[in-house]
Amino acid sequence: QIMKQVPVRFDSKTLHIPAYSVEKLSSMTDTDWNNFLKRVCSLLDSSEKNTGAARSKLNLLYYLCTLAVHKEMASRLISSQLFPTLIQQLRTASNWDIRAKVGRVIGLLALHTSELGENVPVSEAITLLTELIRENFRNSKLKQCLLPALGELLYLIASKEEKGEYPRECWAVPSAAYTVLMRCLREGVRLFHG
């Protein structure tokens, strides 16, 4: 069962950072780009103790979704400090909506990136997504949010390895990831026929 994703819209008035266009971000100096990323990461790292804070974090994630669909931007973002910050949010966010949107950003980055440095912690993201799906296996809504991200990361690694860009050890994929994926597919087929 594939859940149709709703179109992404963010509210620039409540974003807490300037809603720069891809063109503007692409033409930034290294210093301005790093400052922009630092602000994004610190906003993501802040705790979402109240509804307003959670809403503003979701708004920021929606903005990141609009950036992640551009090849050059996806490549820059996945190789930046943003990716480890997203993994951390996936691990610690108390709000499941935020975890689901973080998963969506990760999936979009994996889908649209054209370059992937070997220092990008892809294996860590795969391990964490696998654990979250396994721990919440009966939560089909959450599974439908996290499975695409897991699939995109696995596909990204496979395509890089196929091109011989990196040695196989660079991104170790835990066997549990395949087990969980196969189990989801089996269950999905059963749901579809049932």
UniProtKB/TrEMBL annotation:
Keywords: Kinase, Transferase. SUPFAM superfamilies: ARM repeat. One of its GO terms (molecular function) is kinase activity. InterPro entries: ARM-like, ARM-type_fold, ULK4. This is ULK4 kinase. It comes from Atrichornis clamosus.
